Amino acid sequence: MYIPQQFALSEKETEAALAQAGFAQLVTHASSGLLVTPLPLLYDQARHSLIGHVSRANPHWQADGRESVAIFSGPQAYISPSFYATKAETGKVVPTWNYEVLNVYGRLVTHDDADWVRNLVTMLTNRHEQGRTEPWQVTDAPESYTRAQLRAIVGVELVISKVEGKVKMSQNQPERNRTGVIAGLKASDAPHDQLVADRVDGLGSTNANGRG
User: Is residue 21, in this structure, part of any structural domain at all?
Assistant: First the structure.
């Protein structure tokens, strides 16, 4: 992935983003071509892997050993040249897009083992149910039902070889343009525009000229 320096995450920021990562597009180069599966993944720090599961009917799990990448997309929004104060000053502005993305590369390993998959599902559930008043647990469902559901899925693990993070949030713009971007996005009713406005507001400017 092309990452201008002003948009690159630091090692610490990359580690934090990886720990918080949730829903991804898993892409694997198989003998039949590219396989793409959207799925939640969980970072296992001890194994330095991303772990998740797919349906047994999904051929993706049969690509064991293949090189893969998990793509986690963050907030994104179109940025109009009309947001920039420099539009009136020079007219030398163009549209762009603000976005966040985390790409995690590695080798795909599949786990067709009931105990491994049960442990994985338990960890995923606990991660996403935490903070709820009455968190649902895997053991809440009838055991026979749970066993049947587990037989219908296969575990997948992405053994990580490289992680790339990019946050393009108008850091390359002068402060007056960043202020305009925040105001322009805040005027929108779209939730993703509001999220990007908050991210732009929370990041500093590099005053560089790179474009993503």
Answer: yes
